Amino acid sequence: MSSAKLLKTDILIAGGGIIGLSIARALSTLPNKPHITVLEKDKTLGNHGSTLNSGVLHSGIYYTPGSFKARHCPIGNRLLTKYCLDNKLPILQCGKLIVAKDTQEVEKINELYERAVTNGVPVKLVDKEEALQIEPHLGTNLQFPMIWSPSTSVASPSAIFEHLLKDVQGIDNIQILNGEGYKRLINNSPTSNTIETTQNTVIETPKFINCGGLYADRIAHDFNEGKEYALIPLKGLYMVDEVPYKEYGLKTVIYPIPPLKTNNFLGVHTTLTTDGKLKLGPTAVPSFWREDYEGFKTFKFDEFAEIITQYIKIGFSSKVFWYLNLLWNEIKKSSRTYFIKEGQKLINVYDKGGPNENPKFKRGKSAIRTQLINKKDHSFMNDFIILDRGSHVHFLNMASPGWTSAMSLAEDMKTNIQEGLSFEEILKRVNENRKK
Question: What fold does the segment set 5-50+158-227+383-435 form as a domain?
Fold first, then answer.
């Protein structure tokens, strides 16, 4: 320890992804101009979910009213859309149709519509004529009404991140230490935290903010927080059509109705990209280590053992058949034929006699979902988990719509410091005001 470099900073953020950088940017404008240090374990920033996500700016339709997701997704959508427009970054303001594939799902369409209204999201129920004006290539067997979400957009995650990084790098009171990650907690108290980095720097700070993404749970465990949760990383894979979507004349993205009770995944859907591609997906297949992007290049035995242990415990639990059903449904998505079949339910371009009845696909880049489960009953955690302990705050389970919500989360982090309100107190105040 005597040879360790010592550093003091007003605010220390672990994780240089879009949430960490958005928080750093927001806090840099506090009246006292705090010195902010961002730790990033990778030499380059933005290698994970910040740039590998679908690019869909979700509107906030799906999430349980009163939850963190229901609060932050609609606000984040507006802030990130404005950021793209103000900085002339690529964005498709194409909207989204949420569709029912059979008559039983029509009832769920109405339920989801009511949820969206409760969440303050602009939506409209559209009939067949209106829907076909929005998207002429709708699947032939879809049911009506459908939900039209005009505020859903598609942006370029890499373009947004690159611009945000340049913004943050240009702020005098922010220091980014890339290639230097969180290693361990030395000690902490209600007013101070001392941590050691992977480069043996010892950092003291009165405010530690954990935005560690795939490793946020491990960091929280060091602080004796969130130990009731375990990570089950899930890989999202897309199939990318080799034909540009404009050649089909597609105009919007189309999502199936999700299961409202569990709402774990949104199903195989179509996504248009800012570089002209049409994607089908994603999967949610289990990964057995945290950064399982390219085979065994990033394999870590300790992570493998940890995750396998969780699956063994699940195998002896009452949830085993639920997980086996989930696994089977996701394994089916590894088939090109299955993806095409699911795509045919949504759009008619792959139908026999359609513009492309024999499509050619390639695999898109994969991302890893930071899915947490409750260790006690093995249930999926469906909301963001924000553990706010005053001197240290931990952002866990920041799966979709974490990317969309980043700038809204950053604004509440600023309110947290300015007004001394916890995230739970901010959410409670907002929900009470909405009821008035």
Answer: FAD/NAD(P)-binding domain (3.50.50)
Neighbours of 284 (CB within 10 A): 22
Residue-level pLDDT at 339 = 86
> How many of the other CB atoms lie within 10 Å of CB of 220?
23
Q: What is the pLDDT of residue 263?
A: 47
What gap in Å lies between CA 303 and CA 201, rounded to an integer? 25
Please tell me whether residue 31 adopts helix, strand or coil conformation.
coil
Closest C-alpha among 22, 13, 343 to residue 168: 22
Cβ-based neighbour number of residue 407 at 10 Å = 23
**Rounded CA separation 376/232 (Å):** 14
pLDDT beneath 50: ranges in the chain: 1, 263
**pLDDT at residue 1 in the model:** 46
Residue 36: strand, helix, or coil: strand
d(CA 211, CA 13): 7
Tell me the pTM: 0.95
Distances (CA, A) of 300 to 234, 287, 360, 409: 16, 12, 34, 31
Q: What is the DSSP letter of 74?
A: H
pLDDT at res. 261: 55
Instruction: Please report where in the chains the tokens 């005098």 appear, as a residue.
Output: 172
The pLDDT of residue 285 = 87
Q: How far apart are CA 396 and CA 372, in angstroms?
A: 8
Contact 58, 173 (CB under 8 A): no
Secondary structure letter of residue 183 according to DSSP: E
Look at residue 294 in the predicted model and tell me its pLDDT: 79
Angle at 37 between CA 34 and CA 38, to 5 degrees: 135
Beta strands 269-272 and 182-188 are unpaired
| Domain definitions of the chain by residue range | 5-50+158-227+383-435, 96-150+234-369
Record the tokens describing residue 371, joined without a space.
């899915």
Beta carbons within 8 Å of 231's beta carbon, 6+ residues apart: 214, 217, 290, 307, 370, 371, 372, 373
Closest CA to 91 of 57, 117, 66: 57
pLDDT of residue 159: 98
Phi, psi (rounded to 5 degrees) for 215: -115, 10
pLDDT at position 266: 78
The label of the residue with tokens 């005001």 reads 433
| CATH superfamily ID and name for 96-150+234-369 | D-Amino Acid Oxidase, subunit A, domain 2 (3.30.9.10)
